[in-house]
Amino acid sequence: MSNEDNFYPSDTNPPYEESACTESMVWVTFRKEGIHKYPAALDDPKLVDVSFLGHPHRHIFHFKVWIEVFHDDRDVEFILFKRWLEGLYDGTLELDYNSCEMIADDLHKEVTNKYPKRKIWISVSEDGENGCIKKYK
């Protein structure tokens, strides 16, 4: 076979081959205003530089939620999923001492109740700057 037999001109595509995808996830994002605090920052000498975190303070929490899907035709429809997630929260979130990780865990419980037996990944950040990603199976 010559090299010319392996060449596909730039205006054509090679023959289609079955995808090797082993899992699929879709994701949505949303934001919510919230107030929380980190009480240990008030007393822990190792946290003196961030002691202000011990007092209630405001963030815009950025959420990104991935959910496993089992077929390619809107198994979980993006807009409906996002609206449902946003509807879980009313007004300004009063989060007390909850960290981003704790917020993700609480959200995971809700998502799993509605969509059982799916992989779910949740990212929560403070103002889109610092946060977490948790992967649940």
Describe it:
The protein is of the alpha+beta class and 137 residues long. It has a single domain (24-136), classed as 2-Layer Sandwich (Tetrahydropterin Synthase, Chain A). Helix content is 18%, strand content 32%. The protein contains two helices and five strands; from the N terminus they run E-E-H-E-H-E-E. It has a five-stranded mixed sheet. A hairpin with a 3-residue loop joins strand 4 (120-126) and strand 5 (130-136). It is elongated and about 65 Å long. The N and C termini lie far apart (47 Å). The mean pLDDT is 92.
Topology:
Elements: E1 24-36, E2 57-69, H1 78-87, E3 93-96, H2 100-114, E4 120-126, E5 130-136
What topology, given as strand order, has the largest sheet?
3-1-2-4-5
Secondary-structure element order, N to C: EEHEHEE
Regions with little confidence, pLDDT below 50 for 5+ residues: none
Strand content: 25-35%
In which range does the helix fraction lie?
Answer: 10-25%
Short overview:
18% of the residues lie in helices and 32% in strands.
